[in-house]
Amino acid sequence: MNIASTVTLSNGVKIPQLGLGVYKVDESEAKDTVLSALDLGYRHIDTASFYGNERQVGDALQETDIPREDIFVTTKVWNDEQGYEETMKAFERSIEKLQTDYVDLYLIHWPVPGKFQDTWRALEHLYEQGRVRAIGVCNFQEHHLEKLLETAEVTPVVDQVEFHPRLYQKGLLDFCREKEMRVEAWAPLGRAKYFDAPVLQSLAEKHKKTPAQIILRWELQHGIITIPKSTKRQRQKENAEVFDFELSPEDMNEVDEMNRDERLSKHPDDFPYNQS
User: Fold this and answer.
1) Which of 71, 72, 83, 87 could form a disulfide with 122 if both were Cys (CB 3.0 to 4.6 A apart)?
2) What pLDDT is stored for residue 274 in this prediction?
């Protein structure tokens, strides 16, 4: 495995298992952040309309010498853009900013009550048109997925959720595996809030790696797609250097047991949808 290594989604599309997330990357830094990652070998960039930096990601896609078809681009429809017609319009805005003819993966950002099923119909339509190569969701718990699957003609290929050792959502992971959906981790490093945890410190010393690298390796070995964010080239490089070692089953279990069901963000059932 290496930084460009892919996993195959249920519809046959290949996605690099390690990517770059650009949440909270300021538009003044976003283009250079993406170009730096691409130069280091990253081939998976994850943005969203809500992030406010789709245009700068698009500028990077235009500026790089790497062919568009070799870069996997994800974006998302935000909560106030949901519903069938609204989502179709939101997609046009995203495509225009990204300066591309298609998106590799288009996601529903949050399960807005009363709207996400209509939003999904729009994603299915875009998928049928060939304007997106794959479609999925973010922040859906099992009950959201079950409700979506009642009417969906296409099963989501990905559920992107908050996932890190303090929030090891094993029940959701097992559910998604059963439905042939991949789990993708946002905030995969827990926003660096517990790098000093004894388990991570011990494993970092054992493998001569950093706590961040231990966490990313743990996620990769669980089959998780992971998109750590960094604007710093050295940190991007460090995050990619996780393919030259392996955690043992015992190591994996130690990290599993760090779970506290601790969220950095709102639970999807408690998200303030009316304020978004």
Assistant:
1) 87
2) 80
